[in-house]
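Recall that a protein's primary structure is simply its ordered list of amino acids. Everything else, from secondary elements to tertiary packing, is in principle encoded there. The following example makes that idea concrete.
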Amino acid sequence: MGIIPKETQKMPEWLNVVFYVSLLLLLISIIGYFVLSGYHNKAVKYSKDLDLELASQKTDARLAMEKEVLGYKDKINDFTQILDSRLKGSEIFESFQKICHPKVSYSQFNLDVRKRMISASGEAQSFSVLGQQLLIYQQNPLVESVDVSQISIDKKGKIGFSLSLNLKSQ
């Protein structure tokens, strides 16, 4: 039961090193924050000064020119929209060629792009071939309506006809 003083245990040396390194990193981080904050404030001030300088350099003539250029830009965009929405004749010819029956030949072909209408005259081998051709047109998603007129039979037994196709707007 004696009171004998015991030696106090010393902290390991590596723990002291870790403490001082951590303290050093904390001080470097705090100093770095203030340095970077100062650079940021300088950059913001420099940016504002440049904006003011650019604003002071805008003359009436330059503003008028910018307005004119923006007007041309709007006109070009409008023209682009018109070109994109127009019906392309080359696409119509390609589509018409794909849906033609092999035993039907056309002697006349008129395309009215504004009315979206095709008028054609031709000749079919028989009434059944003409019927098949009309059915192909009616089932095509580009064709809105088909009107056939002036059906005739020539001396060779071929069927002459005129038709008009109204195309759907896309």
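The chain has a mean pLDDT of 86. The longest helix spans residues 13-57.
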